[in-house]
Amino acid sequence: MQEINFEDAVEKILEQDRRYARDAFFFVRDALEITKRQVHKENRERREEKHVTGQQLLDGIRKFALKEYGPMTVTVFEEWGVRDCKDFGEIVFCMVEIGCFAKTKEDSRTDFQNGYNFADAFQKPFWPASRRTDVAAKSVPL
What we know:
The protein has helices at residues 6-16, 22-46, 54-69, 73-80, 85-98, 118-123, 129-139. The protein is mainly α. The chain has one domain. The longest helix is centred in the N-terminal third of the chain and has 25 residues, at 22-46. 27% of the residues are buried.
């Protein structure tokens, strides 16, 4: 089987499905590569497999996005059509269906449904410490 070129695959997806911007696919690919390296490094120490789960990828996406886009992350994602973690699952499975990404029989779109809240993950880290403390204090039940 011939390996599909990533750029061609994205263009083919975009011909059928325009929900997400081209850059979103490239971002997810880059985040997956970084996450795979991290998981491989951790698993090598424990001599385990290096498959990346949906939750691991979401964590990798969060870290990569904060590094790349900082406080503008949510704005960039919105521009790409990405509104929540479920959208990352859709992007991943578009790539699985076209043959660019692999999955195990346990992997599914639902792995991405209960991810993180974008405001908590991407905006809160940039709030002043006093605001983070105030919000945390107000959300603690008495």
